[in-house]
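User: Okay, second chain of the day. Same drill as before: sequence in, structure tokens out.
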Amino acid sequence: MGSSILGPKEIEMFEGQALLYRQCCAYIDSMCIKWCVELNIADIIHNHGQPITLHHLVSTLQLPSSRVGALQRFMRYLAHNGLFHIVRIHDENKQEKEAYGLTIASKLLVSSNDYCLSPMVKYATDPVTMGPLNQLKEWIYKEDNLSLFGMAKGMEFWEFLNINPKYLKSFNEAMACDSKMINLALRSCGLVFEGLESIVDVGGGIGTTAKIISEAFPKLKCIVFDLPQVVENLLGSNNLSFVGGDMFKSIPKAHAVLLKNIIHDWDEENCVKILRNCKDAISSNGKRGKVIIIESVINEKQDKHEITDMKLKFDIYMTCNNGAQKTEEELKKIFIEAGFQGYKLFPIAGIVSLVEVYP
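Assistant: Same drill. Structure tokens below.
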């Protein structure tokens, strides 16, 4: 290939154009993954038992012939983005053909996978979730305390969940599948729970994380604490129970309190309120308790670019809902204001960190 006929400044401008176009077309990634989940592409390949040809995929999906070309282009794009492998195989007639295989990412979209993340994809790409982002300009000029979601829907996110059972179900399923990934983290973080007699999972939803902990530590008394309408019909076990209430008023007494993806939901003032109630909950049992926080912590200096990119995307999403992904310095400030004396931060894997906070 010959050298460019453009000068350095022109080349730089076209690189800038490519960056802008890539950013404004990023929604295509979300929609293609949503399409993949809605059509159960990963399940089809998994059930096929080997990489699947375009012909077999078209046949399984029962697509009209006019859409074969579109399917091929979608699969090519998803393979380019790491969702699938494109390999060469021999069909029943011993002819070499192109086929699509699963990658580690698309294996997480297989419904029989214990760590299936399809519910998260469905929730994250729902028009209710994505729609308010179209009103960012209007929201940024507002002087009130409404979140972007609140401005767009006429009510705040948690209120919307309470009166929309279908969306609440989607939200809980998304949080539950995300919690299952914590099982992987617990394998290397078991010492965090060793020696504890009781723990309260604040905002624990339908109890996915607490069930993982209770099974791993059968002598540990686990309490899932969430809004009454979330836990009212949920059944516990020998060492797992469900309690309804409001974390801004009080938290059940325990040796430790778990906050998984809670701190990022709230601004600094509300985080301090929650942590003060956590401190009260662990300070009345006669033992030195602790708060265990599991969520993303922004660390641009140490994280890889793609990890920081994902954390900052989450930060934008949380900012639009009056929350924020915190840096370590921001967490430290909140801990001090809430009356805590020390903490330890452990990066786990991917975008998740674990923080132990001591009174």
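The chain has a mean pLDDT of 88.

User: Thanks, on to the next one.
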